[in-house]
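Box 3.1 A note on notation
Throughout this textbook, protein chains are presented in two layers. The first layer is the amino acid sequence; the second is a token string describing backbone geometry. Keep the layers aligned when reading.
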Amino acid sequence: MAIIENDGFSSLPDELVILIISFLPFIDAFRLCLLRKEWHKRALWLHCPNFELFEADFTFPGARQYSFNVGKRVRSMELKRFGKLRFVDFLNKAVNGLTSPALSKFSFRMFYSTQYQENVDKWINVALAKYVKELSLDFSDGDPIDPQPLLLNAPQYVLPNFFYENGRSIRVLNLNSCGLGSFNFQNFIGLSSLTLTRVRLHWEEIAPLLAACPLLESLCLVECYRVIKIDMSFVLLRLKRLIIRHCVPVTLGVELCLPKLQYFEYAGRMVLLNLSKLDEIQEVVLDYRLDFFYPYEAEDIVALFSGFADARILKVCTSALKKFSKDYLLYCKPPAHILHIEHLTLKTCLGRYELPAIMCLLRSSPHLKTLSILSSLMELTEYQDFMYNRYSDRLPEGIWTKKGWRLDNLERVEMQGFTAKKIEVDLLKFILRKSRFLQKLIVKPLIRGSSSENSKALKDLKDVAVASGQAVIKWY
């Protein structure tokens, strides 16, 4: 048996080192081989099947500075150019020398320029030839020196035809800031996860793309543009996870018919959601933008939750739910769309105009077990303040003491960003009075909040006639 040296590692046989390298990210495998000259000389790190490199790791510190000073700006751009040259040179040598016959992952991030088109084509071709399973191509600039608007007109890498001809081995595909070209996903029969970020995607192209991937289970569209509509009204039997985040303009809304869908997330402007057959939906995230010009009333807000009857987890931004009619709050039946929610997260500013929506959501969730309130401050312009007042009806008298409202299954409540506003204290008091089986109320005040106001609020909460004898208030 070989005698292990004092470091306990450098005398390991090559076979064992290669085995260890097979479990490491590529850059860690390279650093490991620097421990011993023989390992580096024999390029054992090129046996790593998890290839992942980022241009930012090769840039000089001075290149990550943006300044209006012309001299510093020119210097930063020069340093960034040198960093890109180092990155491309290292990537060329690494890709040409890859020893592993198959790649589990091939991923790189580099801000694209046309002079490197042949290099990028070659890297992708090598990855496909080694039957890569997870492919991530990111051509965005994570640290732009030029203002971002100027980068919108920058040349874009377009996926070549051979990419679509040889993608049979790919199971996970992530594309960022590139063109799809004349795409044809017919050969991607094993694809299970697809993420498109900052990609131009016409809504009529979505259907054939998904139809060609029968095993697709996860689809994520982030900041895609020229997307007028997202239509998945055809039945996709396997799709379980769908994320649509800040795509524009989506003026014709979102139409879904996904019987196996378990997770749905939408972030962006308020649009029409036409949902059907979401039979297995479990978690829903709705992060709407605050839109003062969207002319909707209570019935329209309630319609936003249609299709989510079977969901157990709901996360929603209440600042976008501008107006619930106080008459609806008092006299109408709660919407039946969300009666099964057990875990509710509210992203809110807790303004007057949001409270009716919050109260209606609580009233509509009789099976609610946990409630998380993520409160945040918002700086208002003069116009926004005017619009807030316009949409802020006074709550009906006796809303906090109205009989018949119960939160009988609520066990745990957490509020983050507590600022001791009256509306926050009143809401927590209401919850304490209406929750007969509440076990824990956790309050996390805002760091820069007033200590005296927080102390007074805590005293007020402790003086409430709590419905549950097991309730414990924890203050952080």
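The CA atoms of residues 44 and 50 lie 13 Å apart. The two ends are 57 Å apart (CA to CA).
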